[in-house]
Write a structure and sequence with these properties.
By secondary structure, this protein is of the alpha+beta class. It has three helices and four strands, in the order E-H-E-H-H-E-E. Helices cover 33% and strands 22% of the residues. It has a four-stranded mixed sheet. Strand 3 and strand 4 form a beta hairpin.
Length: 72
């Protein structure tokens, strides 16, 4: 899954909530621009609350932050 919304934490959270029923073990979720705005960084650091399922993350992969999540 590739999540690249309006660069607003609320919008990304709504997308993740909508798609979460489809996330199965092994699912990869790519988030773009997780550090572009303070709101997006807050969303990234609050993924526990958004996903509420077991996952692991990578370090951001470029200067505005491209983050990967894998559902365990």
């Amino acid at each position: 899954w590739y999540i690249d919304g309006l660069h607003e934490g609320k919008h990304v959270t709504e997308q993740v909530t909508l798609y979460k029923p489809f996330f199965k073990k092994g699912t990869l979720i790519a988030f773009d621009d997780i550090f572009m705005t303070p709101d997006m960084a807050e969303m990234w650091h609050g993924l526990d609350d958004v996903l509420s399922i077991n996952y692991k993350t990578t370090l951001p992969l470029h200067f505005t932050g491209f983050g990967l999540v894998q559902i365990k």
